[in-house]
Design brief:
The chain is an all-alpha fold. The protein has helices spanning 9-21, 25-38, 43-55, 59-72, 77-89, 93-101, 109-122, 126-133, 141-153, 157-171, 175-187, 191-208, 231-236, 238-251, 255-264, 275-284, 290-302, 309-320, 324-333, 335-341, 344-356, 360-390, 394-424, 428-437, 439-442, 446-458, 463-476, 486-498, 502-522, 530-544, 548-558, 562-565, 568-586, 594-610, 619-625, 634-649. The chain contains 36 helices and no strands. Among the domains are: 137-213 and 226-272, Serine Threonine Protein Phosphatase 5, Tetratricopeptide repeat, CATH 1.25.40.10; 343-443; 445-518, Serine Threonine Protein Phosphatase 5, Tetratricopeptide repeat (Alpha Horseshoe); 529-650. GO terms for molecular function: intraciliary transport particle B binding. It comes from Phytophthora fragariae. It is found in: Cell projection, Cilium. Belongs to the TTC30/dfy-1/fleer family. This is Tetratricopeptide repeat protein.
Length: 650
């Protein structure tokens, strides 16, 4: 096979094939690359390198090998087919389809048709996909799977599930087909059925392949040996199953469950992750490490193929984090993806958001046009639901309700963006008016109810109405208050206080404190801020009412223990209260007890001690403000404040 000395050839060859048999492709590639350097046109080396690269998922390298083979051996149909497959896997669908079309061998006719169908399918050309499938063997399981994939692509998830089930009955248990069935259940929002399919995939994968180390990775134990992208891993469909499980947990708002599902998948290095996993890991850490998430999504966008949601998610997240210029840049740089991956309504929404930066009035008009369109759609769907109920058609009722829920989810961002224009101007009366106008459709939507509560809260004289919206939400999560946004708990506490219902406020504070203690006992290193934020908000409220003795003590209490609670964000809000107090004392507009002054000086000493290495601004803050000001530590600012209060006391 290789050009070696007599007697060594068979040993050399058996070594290569042994490495490939054991899926040690990297080692085989190292040897084969040396062979190719010595013999640049070695057919065997090129062929085996192409095979190894393909199974290592280095499809661009595989393309290079098979292109050389096709040029040297144009009559070998296998090389033409392998090149077409490698082109397809590397996302070069047009080239793959063209190359496959050149193959006229009857031996490969079915595989060529399926490859061409797959290429058209990935380009969303369903008509061409159907046309090619008509040339395939109709009873072939792969053809049936393709029929199911087309049904899925066109949104007919139950017929798609049935097709996949038919193929499963013919072939026997196949993890990838079970995953397809689970995906259909997910799309039909039948999460229980989807989870049962996923559980079967995971259970079988763990039982048959313990070497894949399922569940060995955690946030505390991230340094786990990679299992790499082996053929065995791909055959188990474990990666797909865990990604889908994470998506279901996310949809059910169990964000911890979603993170756990991603961490439980067989461990791999970041550079080894498939596009879907990289996308999901990017989303998972957006709240704690947005820069890392943006980096992952941008990498995917620049290196196709990538999940179709990548483009829209990147735009949404840039908008959510206030990076409107970056969002506009991504939109402009990827105009070719706009019509391919974004719906017209989504694009119009993003266009209005870009306009908002220069002309809020024009943006409001664009949002209003979109909102009118959505409301018309919701009215039509309401009529459909009523007609289905009159006809007593359970299937139509179910379909119409799902369509209504989906339409409502599409409408909510438009409504919130429209209301936010007045919100930013402090015109809460107008925001309330906008929400009242949409109560007919949105009154049961959780986000709508919470935002209505926020509007009542900020108007300053509607605390009782705010309680009516906050309280049911908090009670719903009574057993897991740490899953509720801290600001919601803080606002409810303030409402109780302002409504002279201090007992309820204290009870809620005790519940939060109890949950934080329980969580700390489970994970001593975890930093928890719910109680801190609630106390900060309550303390700030009392300070604003000129009750500094109580308010400033509550603010200081919020920072205990300092090594966990003291940080740039918490210090920012705490020091505002101290500065407000200092200014008020300097103007002789208030007085505080001597004991309170002693507590303040002691607190500032503690902040000095624990804040030596904590800067009061982050790099992101400086970028946003466009300043290069010298960064101060909390320790420095605490000493400045202490000097101020010592002067005031004397």
């Amino acid at each position: 096979m290789f050009q070696t000395q007599d007697g060594a050839g068979s040993s050399y060859t058996s070594t290569i094939y042994g490495l490939i048999r054991d899926q040690k492709y990297e080692e085989a590639v190292r040897i084969l690359q040396i062979e190719l350097e010595n013999h640049p046109h070695s057919r065997a080396a090129l062929s085996l390198l192409g095979y190894c690269y393909y199974h290592m998922q280095l499809f661009h390298h595989a393309v290079g090998m098979y292109e050389q083979l096709c040029a040297s051996y144009p009559d070998v149909d296998e090389y033409q087919l392998y090149l077409a497959q490698s082109l397809y896997k590397s996302g070069q669908y047009d080239a793959a389809s063209r190359r496959a079309s050149q193959l006229e061998s009857e031996q490969f006719a079915q595989r060529v048709h399926l490859l061409r169908a797959a290429s058209y399918y990935e380009q969303n050309d369903i008509k061409a996909t159907r046309s090619v499938l008509e040339e395939c063997l109709p009873d072939d399981p792969t053809t049936i799977v393709f029929d199911g994939a087309i049904e899925y692509k066109e949104g007919r998830y139950e017929p798609a599930r049935a097709k996949f089930a038919d193929a499963l009955n013919i072939l026997g248990y196949q993890p990838d087909l079970s995953y397809n069935i689970a995906l259909c259940f997910f799309k039909m929002k039948q999460y229980g059925n989807a989870m049962r399919q996923i559980a079967e995939i995971i259970e079988k994968g763990v039982r048959d392949h313990p070497e894949l180390s399922v569940g060995s990775k955690s946030e505390q134990n991230a340094d786990v040996k990679s299992v790499r992208n082996s053929t065995v891993l791909r055959e188990t469909a474990l990666v797909e199953a865990f990604n889908l499980k994470a998506a279901i947990e996310y949809e059910m708002k169990n964000y911890k469950g979603a993170r756990d599902a991603l961490l439980d998948m067989p461990p791999r290095q970041e550079e080894e992750l498939d596009p879907v996993s990289l996308h999901n890991f990017g989303l998972m850490n957006m709240d704690v490490e947005p820069n890392g998430g943006f980096k992952k999504l941008n990498f995917l966008l620049q290196n196709p193929p990538f999940p179709v949601e990548t483009f829209s998610n990147l735009l949404i997240l840039y908008t959510k984090h206030g990076f409107h210029d970056l969002m506009a840049d991504v939109l402009a740089e990827n105009a070719h993806l706009t019509f391919q991956l974004l719906s017209k309504d989504f694009y119009d929404f993003m266009d209005a958001t870009v306009t908002l930066q220069t002309s809020p009035e024009d943006a409001y008009r664009k949002y209003d046009e979109l909102a009118t369109k959505h409301v018309e759609g919701l009215r039509k769907l309401t009529k459909k639901i009523q007609d289905a109920r009159l006809a007593q058609s359970n299937e139509d009722i179910k379909t119409s309700l799902k369509a209504y829920d989906d339409a409502l989810e599409d409408f909510m961002p438009v409504l919130m963006a429209q209301a936010n224009i007045y919100w930013e101007r402090g015109n809460y009366t107008q925001v309330e008016k906008i929400f009242r106008q949409t109560a007919e459709f949105c009154s049961e939507h959780e986000a709508w109810k919470l935002n209505v509560a926020h509007v009542f809260f900020l108007q300053g004289n509607k605390y009782e109405q705010a309680i009516q919206y906050y309280e049911p939400f908090v009670k719903k999560h009574q057993d897991n208050l740490l899953d509720v946004q801290a600001i919601i708990l803080a606002n409810l506490c303030v409402c109780y206080v302002m409504n002279t219902d201090n007992e309820k406020a204290e009870e809620l504070l005790r519940s939060i404190e109890r949950e934080e203690e329980e969580e700390s006992s489970r994970d001593p290193e975890k930093r928890l801020f719910h109680l801190c934020i609630v106390n900060l908000v309550i303390g700030t409220l009392y300070c604003s009412k000129n009750n500094y003795d109580f308010g400033i003590c509550r603010v200081m209490k919020s920072m205990e223990p300092y090594h966990r609670k003291l940080g740039p964000d918490t210090w920012y809000y705490a020091k505002r209260c101290f500065l407000g107090l200092a200014l008020t004392l300097a103007k002789h507009m208030t007085t505080i007890r001597d004991s309170t002054m002693d507590d303040i000086l002691e607190f500032l000493d503690c902040a000095d001690q624990h804040g030596k290495d904590i800067f009061t601004t982050t790099a992101a803050d400086q970028r946003n403000t466009g300043t290069d000001a010298i960064q101060h530590t909390i320790s420095y600012e605490a000493r400045v404040l202490k000097r101020t209060f010592l002067k005031l006391r004397s």
